[in-house]
Amino acid sequence: MALRINIPPLTRVILVLLVGFSVLYQAASYRQYTSGDSQVRTGVPWIALTPQLSIYYPWAYVTSTFAEKNVLTLLIGAATLFYGGKYLERAWGSAEFGKFLLIVVLLSNVVASCLYVLLFAITRADAQAWVSLQGSIALQAAFLVAFKQLVPEHTVTILKGIIKIRVKHFPAIFLTANTISGVVFGTHVAAVLSWLGFLTSWTYLRFYKKQPDLSGTNTGSTTLQGDASETFAFAYFWPDIVHGPVAAVSDSIFNLLVAARIFTPFSAEDIQTSNDQANARGEAGLPSLLNQGNRRGGSGKREEAERRRALALKALDQRLQAATATRQQPGPSAPMPSSVGKANPAMEAATDKKDDSTMV
Fold first, then answer.
1. Of 77, 169, 250, 346, which has the maximum CB count within 10 A?
2. What is the pTM of this model?
3. Dihedral over alpha carbons 74, 75, 77, 79 (to 10 degrees)
4. Which residues are within 8 A (CB) of 120 and not within 5 positions of it... i.e. 6 or more apart?
5. Distances from the Cα of 229 to the Cα of 264, 291, 313, angstroms
6. Averaged over 311-327, what is the pLDDT?
7. In 3-state terms, what secondary structure has residue 165?
8. DSSP string covering 285-296, please?
9. CB 109 within 8 A of CB 133
10. What does the pLDDT average to over 110-114?
11. pLDDT, position 336
């Protein structure tokens, strides 16, 4: 029996790119080191992004994401792309998943390159201009944001149930760990890329990504743009104790961007529809993040069909309840017809005549 590789096509491509460019980067670095090349300090700029040389190697804005520096980061990146890529590509489709990858990779690397060039202009430190921006950490942060949107209440168990963490807490843990590591161990590139991957993916999913309306409550269109749900707001990525301060700052920034006409504020219907959409995703019972593979053929399609059927039933039930409530509203009572309250005079006369003939 032939071995079947159950990996979606685009996920398979990015896994090959990750392994291929990582191996190629290590081979090129080793060759530079053994040959005594004077450009060793620049790394491998035609694979890994070097801000000072990015104008000569523009493709490095994409290839750098798939070039890991060591075996440990390669294993972590491969596991993230394997599990996360399988899940998101099946949930969104290959086209939308590819668009998401391209936006996160390009914007994160472009903004990071500009930041390090600006930092070099301020400090005049060569290390800032010749730093290598590489690794899939921006995609790892972006995947966690996407999971926070799709399955926030899913619980991941570690060490046979000793540690249980909900998916909605992973972005904050990931960013905090990378920030501390950047300050303590000097891994500032990973910290910067993780924050940029987080902000880029959240902005795209929050305001721009189009998705089908699964709630059935949107009166204007069957497609939604962005995710206006309250649970996907920026403040809800952080612990409850800091929701207030974070919301105050993020709302102020958002109001400034709205005033500058960069963003458009959500309407009340958008917020309600997105909230219903989030509730529908939670009640439909989306499949497990780590158990997406199907040991028996067709189980993935059956799960998707069951999910869509549950969402359709929920939407139908909501509409029936709304229709029932509308019918039960009291209306003005109609007057009784005159023919019911008063007998027809012709009928009375005929009856009297019949009675008289009977008596006779």
1. 77
2. 0.78
3. 160
4. 51, 52, 126, 128, 129
5. 15, 27, 21
6. 65
7. strand
8. TPPPSS----SS
9. yes
10. 96
11. 45
Residue 19 region by backbone torsions, left for phi larger than 0, else alpha for psi between -120 and 50, else beta:
alpha
DSSP line for 200-216? HHHHIIIII-EEE--SS
Tokens linked to 265: 């504020």
Q: Tell me how many degrees the CA angle 317-321-324 measures, rounded to the nearest 5.
A: 135
Q: Fill in the amino acid letter for 313.
A: L
Dist. CA 45–CA 113, nearest whole Å: 13
Give the separation between CA 78 and CA 109, rounded to whole angstroms.
Answer: 19
| Beta-bridge mates of residue 211 | 224
Helix axis angle for 94-123 and 9-35, nearest 10°, is 30
Give the closest residue to 45 by CA, choosing from 134, 176, 147, 109. Answer: 134
State the virtual CA torsion across 345, 349, 350, 351 in degrees, nearest 10: 100
Tens digits of per-residue pLDDT, 165-181?
Answer: 889 999 999 999 999 99
**Bigger pLDDT: 345 vs 217:** 217
* Helices of type H across the chain: 9-35, 60-63, 71-92, 94-123, 126-129, 137-150, 170-184, 188-203, 243-259, 268-283, 299-327, 338-341, 345-359
Task: Look over the chain and give the mean of its residue pLDDT values, rounded to a whole number.
Answer: 81
